[in-house]
Write a structure and sequence with these properties.
Layout: H1 10-23, E1 36-42, H2 49-65, E2 70-75, H3 87-92, E3 98-101, H4 125-139, E4 147-154, E5 159-162, E6 177-180, H5 183-191, E7 195-198, H6 204-210, E8 215-218, E9 234-237, E10 248-254, H7 255-260, H8 263-271, H9 275-287, H10 289-298, E11 302-305, H11 308-331, H12 336-353
Parallel strand pairs: 1-2, 1-3, 6-7, 6-8, 9-11
Antiparallel strand pairs: 3-10, 4-10, 5-8, 5-9
Helix pairs in contact: 4-9, 4-12, 5-11
Length: about 350
């Protein structure tokens, strides 16, 4: 569990369990508790790595460990309505039971957890996912009031994907129009001399083909499903000890729905939450990079990997972005430098353990 343990509803849950047991007694005196179906809503296609390799296996595991009493129905591609930025509110308000969402789709609403999206904080997805899950348990409770967080994670450190010219050093970034993933990414691209352009991920491939943007910041994990390798020629990896950027993602459950579960089913959810799940999903997203790399190379695209000395120059150039985040956090009443130091320490802790 992430530490959002609740004792509320304990008496009600026990009373409900007794009522259900009485009502479910059938022939032969065998009782079966009521089956429960949870609806999980997310923004990506059914064929995405997120659903195929994480959300569906997670749902299957929950069902198996509950003896079939808990079923998770997954609704991809915003099938239940709304926009991706509204997913958190859908979970908080009980419109759905579970969401898999990106908190930074609503800039400024989750300022504490944004620290992991700053330039050169992230390590591998496996290490950083565990770090952000532990961090959120300590520092992000208020930001996620109304939901019961099950796990936080990130994708692998992102790379540059370019249509017309390669990027092999900092100076090559000047003037490039690049799709930015979130607010820290936008500020980082500006600091590196590029022109950031905001747009939803599904629009990137067409925008690259039409020359609306020169390139994009993406993990390789989405290169293949979005066919980015077909409209680009150059790819620059921006990760050695630490990466330029990642995106924090969360699997969240409506708090009242969680509290209403009988104790044994609540225990199943708890067993499929927290650090162990963060490690697992982080590994999934780290491994998901290779198919995208292979597809780009198979097309004949050029892959450039910046060494640590060059990345040190990029980190120096983006340092004002980090300093500004610390100052803005302090203005919000948060201890910005302490949060940054803690985030970096947790990433280092799990990076060295992997």
């Amino acid at each position: 569990m992430l530490g959002w343990d609740r004792n509320v509803g304990g008496l009600a849950a026990r009373s409900w369990a007794v009522v259900v047991a009485v009502l479910c007694i059938g022939a032969g005196g065998v009782a079966r508790a009521q089956d429960i179906t949870l609806r999980l809503h997310h923004l990506l296609p059914q064929q995405s790595v997120a659903q195929v390799q994480f959300l569906q296996p997670w749902a299957d595991k929950v069902m198996a460990e509950s003896g079939g009493r808990l079923k998770v129905e997954i609704y991809p591609s915003m099938q239940l309505g709304g926009k991706p930025a509204q997913l958190f509110d859908q979970a908080r308000d009980g419109v759905v039971d579970l969401v898999w969402t990106v908190p930074s789709y609503t800039p400024g609403r989750f300022p504490t957890i944004e620290v992991f999206e700053l330039p050169f904080v992230t390590a591998s997805a496996e290490a950083t996912s565990q770090a952000v899950t532990e961090f959120a348990t300590k520092y992000a409770r208020e930001e996620f009031a109304g939901v019961h967080p099950l796990v936080f994670h990130v994708h692998a450190p992102g790379s540059l994907h370019l249509a017309s010219r390669p990027v092999a050093r900092l100076e090559d970034m000047t003037g490039l129009k690049l799709r930015a993933p979130h607010r820290p990414g936008t500020e980082a691209l500006s600091a590196l001399g590029a022109v950031p352009v905001g747009m939803p991920a599904p629009e990137v491939t067409q925008s690259l083909a039409r020359g609306v943007v020169d390139g994009t910041l993406f993990p390789f994990e989405v290169v293949l499903p979005l066919r980015v390798h077909e409209v680009t020629r150059f790819h620059t990896r921006l990760f050695a000890k630490r990466g330029l950027y990642t995106v924090v993602i969360a699997l969240l459950m409506n708090q009242a729905r969680y509290d209403s579960l009988p104790p044994d089913l609540k225990a199943v959810i708890d067993a499929n939450s927290g650090l162990a799940v963060a490690k697992w999903v982080g590994q999934v997203f780290d491994k998901a990079e290779q198919p995208g790399i292979d597809a780009a190379l198979a097309k004949g695209n050029r892959l450039i990997t910046l060494d640590q000395a060059e990345l040190d120059r990029w980190e120096q150039a983006t340092r004002p972005v980090v300093d500004r985040w610390v100052a803005d956090s302090n203005a919000r009443g948060l201890e910005g430098q302490a949060l940054l130091d803690e985030a970096r320490a947790l990433v280092a802790k799990y990076d060295s353990a992997n």
